Amino acid sequence: MLNLLTCKEVENGNKNIFVEDSTTDLIFVWNKGCHIHIEVNQVENLLKKNDILILTKHHNIKVVNFESVRLIKFNLSFFNHATDELVEDLRTILFNVENTSVLCFNEDELQYFETLWDIFRLEMKSNDFLQYAMLQSVLKRMLVICTRKLKGNIKMIPKKETDILRQFRFLVENYFSKHHDIAFYASMLSRAPKTLSNIFSTLSDRSPIEIIHERIMTEARKEICYTNKSIKEIAYNLGYEDVQTFSRFFKNREGISPVQYRVSNIQGMSAVV
């Protein structure tokens, strides 16, 4: 069970703690010290004391400096028997990888979270047959608080349309490296491509194709910056048959070619060192 769920209190700026296990589905970073700056997928995030940053295995952290943080890491398989509603809420968080979520809490919410953390830590040390059930219960309560905060910032949308948005994001996460066209996803959702586009024009500030392209770009930036793969190999892994087509796509979105992007990031990291 412990390979599915861990919680730690970390001090003195050990930034490696965030990347020790790159297969963890979801990570809660609870800042307990002064303001910290965390760069995620090349975007800087400011965390004030008691803010919680939600990360997934698809996020890459470049630089982390902090005094004290609490970490909760878990995989979705920890909730094998969870309700469909909870799983859908988790998917909403997990597959919104273009952005990061920073949650701020009022005093009552914070006190409740502190109480849950204390129970959580005690249960992690337990070794009886009720441990798994107790940890699931406490973690679910934490997740409910977080999803309420996230939903509070989202305009009310009819459930049927909300389900389509969620299902679309889930499908994109699973197929973006193979299918770049709206028709494929519309077919999977039993909708016509135009109908799907109309739904998004009403409910979202981005079109389906923009979401697909943003997901491809997120992965492309990560592969270019953090691996030694050739641009040709990256292009192939992202569903492009030739590197020229991928390079044109990347340059149209980023303003520079994949090779130039890699060079500029290598120079940037060297300057930091």
Overall, the morphology is globular
Radius of gyration: 20 Å
Mean pLDDT: 81
Indicate the low-confidence ranges by residue numbers. Answer: none
The overall strand count is 8
Strand content: 15-25%
The N- to C-terminal Cα distance equals 39 Å
- In which range does the helix fraction lie? 40-55%
H-E string: EEEEEEEHEHHHHHHHHH
Strand order of the largest sheet: 1-7-2-5-8
Tally of DSSP helical segments: 10
Tell me the major beta sheet: 5 strands, antiparallel
Structural class: alpha+beta
Characterize this entry briefly.
The chain has 273 residues and is an alpha+beta fold. The protein has 10 helices and 8 strands.
Descriptive notes:
51% of the residues lie in helices and 15% in strands. It has ten helices and eight strands. The protein has helices spanning 84-94, 107-125, 131-152, 159-175, 182-188, 193-203, 208-226, 231-237, 243-254, 258-272; strands at 5-11, 26-31, 36-40, 43-47, 52-56, 61-64, 68-74, 101-103. The strands form two sheets. It has a five-stranded antiparallel sheet, covered by helices on one side. Strands 4-3-6 form a three-stranded antiparallel sheet, with no helix packed on it.
